[in-house]
Design a protein that fits this description.
- The chain is mainly beta.
- It contains 1 helix and 15 strands, in the order ββββββββαβββββββ.
- The chain is flat, with a radius of gyration of 19 Å.
Length: about 190
Amino acid sequence: MPKASEIKKHAAIEYNGRVMIVRDIERSVPQGRAGGSLYRMRMYDVVDGGKVDETFKAEDMLNFADLQRRPVMFSYVDGDEYIFMDEEDYTPYHMHKDSIAEQLLFIDESTKGVQAVLVEGRPVSVDLPTSVELVIEDTSPSIKGASASARTKPATLTTGLVVQVPEHISAGDKIKINTAESKFISRA
């Protein structure tokens, strides 16, 4: 059983007899409390999508929900539904755009290492690999000889994600991005 301080975003926990996915965590340290960090978590019920905001003390014990991860690849879009195909048994998993909006900024047809998170056989979220390779769709022109400078410029990727890249990178380049921090790592 993990403590509240050990829970990460997109974790599935059991809370009040329901399976919840943690979508957002805010840590705060109130004044005048000796080491008493508080963790405010925004959680969504995997069955009905209901939202719950709850605050836990750092040492509160929580239970991870029983979940399964399956390797998938992005297949196609059907209205607001995104369909991912299981790479082993070709089972299609339908996920609503709102439940995975944050992760969609890192996924295109060629993204490898994506996993569907299943609770009781039902897809509830998507786990991303630590880094992905995406193509720059739009950025200001590259500056020759700027590779030695540490200045950056914004670049819009094919998925709509905007990241800061070095000045020598240009539109059409394929780059590697850290999914946890949404930061440029290197050219692909």
